[in-house]
Design goal:
Pfam families: Peptidase_M55. The protein is an alpha/beta fold. The chain starts with a strand and ends in a 6-residue tail after the last helix.
Length: about 270
């Protein structure tokens, strides 16, 4: 199997607040090391189960967090920004499966550092399905016929994954206590769990179907304030729903919807909070 691995940061064990995931904060280097270690545990297990290629996409913030000098020597790394498809850059129909590691729950839900793309997003929908990063990225994988085999993160992320994708394997590396506290597995126990769950997910691959996105989907993003919605609605083709902070976009397919999301959220971040 050729395996695609999208690695975020907030769902890594031991990382419980912004000091671990913000490049200007004191714990960030520790966060990078633990993020790279968890990626390596999955890569090692994947190669042991006859995966012949593993492509890793750094999927957090500026997407330059994984320490390539410490990454498994046989993996290939997609790093850096700007990426048209952000957290799923490079994913196509050549892959037999995908895994999302270090993922977190969607915005406005319980979970360690829960959010969706930026802190300006309150809710996001594809048609009538509420999605976060996990769901939207899984839809892109499904567009290419690629099943999401495993999701690793906290317990709330695991619940979200199971609601969307029947038979998906989940690896719970921490249990949320609040948005900035968790009961965390030690690195040694995390290694054991990720080895076990990665192998289990590959063995179970035939039982997982791709999350096929709707045709001509409508993407809706509810922003946290009106200024963000105003900025997002400057993108051609969008509609700002009257009396709300919801901006909608009718897309030809999920790929266009994804790129619209990237543009809308980037525009929204221009809002000044004064």
């Amino acid at each position: 199997m050729k395996l695609y691995l999208s690695v975020d940061m907030e769902g890594i064990s031991g990382l419980v607040d912004s000091t671990f995931v913000d490049s200007s904060s004191r714990n960030y280097r520790r966060g990078q090391e633990m993020m790279t270690q968890e990626a390596n545990h999955v890569i090692e297990a994947a190669f042991s189960k006859d995966c012949y290629e593993v492509v890793v996409n750094d999927s957090h913030s500026k997407m330059n967090n994984l320490l390539i000098e410490e990454l498994h020597s046989e993996a290939k790394l997609i790093a850096g920004d700007v990426k048209p498809f952000a957290m799923v850059q490079g994913l196509d129909d050549s892959f037999g499966g995908a895994m999302f590691i270090g993922y977190h729950a969607r915005a406005a839900k319980a979970g360690v550092m829960s959010h969706t793309m930026t802190f300006g997003v309150h809710n996001m929908w594809v048609n009538d399905v509420e999605v976060g990063e996990l769901g939207l990225n899984a839809y892109v994988a499904g567009h290419f016929g690629v099943p999401l085999l495993m999701v690793a993160g906290d317990d709330e992320t695991a619940k979200e994954a199971k609601q969307l994708i029947p038979n998906v394997t989940t690896a719970i590396v921490k249990e949320q206590q609040s948005r900035s506290a968790a009961i965390c597995l030690t690195p040694a126990k995390t290694k054991e769990l990720l080895h076990e769950k990665t192998k289990e997910a590959i063995e179970n691959a035939a039982q997982v179907k791709p999350l096929v996105p709707p045709e001509n989907p409508t993407l809706k993003i509810e922003f946290t304030n009106y200024g963000e919605a105003e900025w997002a609605s400057l993108m051609p083709g969008t509609v700002l729903e009257e009396g709300t902070t919801i901006v909608s976009f009718q897309a030809k397919d999920i790929l266009e919807a994804y790129r619209a999301m990237v543009v809308m959220t980037e525009l929204a971040m221009k809002t000044a909070f004064v």
